[in-house]
Design goal:
With 253 residues, the chain is mainly alpha-helical. The protein is built from 9 helices and 2 strands.
């Protein structure tokens, strides 16, 4: 529930915090004055700012990217210039996946709002990012304790602390996705019914692959054996993973 609630609040706060930035960029983007004013007043301006925030989170220089996308093909016959730019931005960012630095995403799902903004807005966004991250970790802990079947699709938690942290981070992204889109049972991801869900399904699927890759190349906890002559620990190996969930640094989110 917490991920679902704050998943809507983060874009809403970000949109308000960055509105002036995106208006100024649109006015300087190479559109005619009439086109820019029409885009800013149109219903497509909200989706356009969301795509600009996504591109920014994927480390594109949006001050360069938006003018380039405007120049690449004519907009003269476009009925909705904003919608055309949304499509161009979306395809550019999606096609760049795997070729740029890891995007700045809250819980591996939500594009972070970067750049200058009002201090109160920044604090509100940071607070909600921490809440979402904490909730996602708690969902993984609950799933492990309950031995929920969807976790088996991610492979066994590794033994080594660095690999275990990577696995837990990926698992928390999947948990956040499942909470966000009401996915229950053994299914790891659900059927995508909207562009947003398709986008987040792709991010969750990538997290699943990352978790499995870590699990496949690292020694699983289940295979851990004590050294010859050593005393067996009374602590369950799985409890080490559960303990690590609460200590994963917020910088991983």
């Amino acid at each position: 529930m917490l991920v679902r609630r704050h998943r809507h609040l983060v874009p809403t706060i970000a949109a308000a915090a960055q509105r002036d930035r995106w208006i100024n960029l649109t006015l300087r983007s190479g559109l005619t004055e009439a086109q820019a004013q029409t885009v800013i007043r149109s219903e497509s301006f909200g989706p356009l700012t969301a795509e600009l925030r996504r591109a920014d989170a994927h480390h594109f220089d949006v001050e360069v990217l938006l003018p380039r996308l405007i120049r690449c093909r004519t907009l003269g016959d476009a009925a909705d210039v904003g919608a055309v730019l949304v499509s161009r931005l979306r395809h550019t960012v999606t096609d760049s996946s795997g070729h740029r630095a890891a995007p700045d995403l809250v819980a591996g799902l939500i594009p972070a709002a970067r750049g200058p903004m009002d201090a109160d807005m920044r604090e509100a966004l940071d607070d909600r990012a921490h809440l979402i991250a904490a909730r996602s970790r708690a969902l993984v802990q609950s799933a492990m304790e309950a031995r929920e079947p969807w976790l088996t699709k991610l492979g066994s938690p590794p033994e080594g602390p660095p690999e275990r942290t990577k696995w837990l981070t990926a698992a928390a992204t999947v948990a956040a996705y499942r909470d966000r889109w009401h996915v229950d049972g053994s299914m790891v991801t659900g059927r995508a019914g909207s562009d947003l869900q398709r986008l987040e399904t792709a991010r969750a699927s990538q997290a699943i692959r990352q978790a499995r890759a870590v699990a496949d190349t690292a020694r699983p906890i289940a295979e851990s054996t004590p050294a010859s002559g050593s005393r067996l620990s009374r602590r369950s190996p799985a409890s080490d993973v559960l303990a690590d969930i609460s200590t994963v640094s917020a910088t991983h989110w």
